[in-house]
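Morning run. Coffee first, then this:
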Amino acid sequence: MQKIARILIVIGFLFSFYGILLVWQRNNPQRLTFSHYQAVSTRESAVVPIRIRVVDLDIDLPVVAVNMKDNKWQTTDDGVSYLKSSPIPGEKGNAILYGHNWPSLLGKLNQAQTGNKIEITLNDKTKHLFVVHSLAVVSPDQSH
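And here it is:
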């Protein structure tokens, strides 16, 4: 009986350690540090996205234009971040918009399906409509 109790205690400690590791990974500010990332463009544009909507997922959030600072991606807790050194949505290249997967922000994004429409409004009042053609889940170290 003591042997089983010891095994259960060890398993309990392992699960506790694993839980602490998961909390640390989720809240580690270094997880958005990509020292190998090279910005597509270094130009600063006066036209930037200000709002993103995904009607099918009930997502309607402000977009905050940010820069990389000391190889760290700046983030906002109030909406979606847009990396100003990336192309403007609708231009050639990959526009980089990112945010937290909290329920109040992009938490529903994992429910996206092909065919969903994404509307991005720019500060010059133009709107760009995009349609989801494929889905992929990537980790933070897959910035390429």
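Helices lie at 2-27. Good start to the day.
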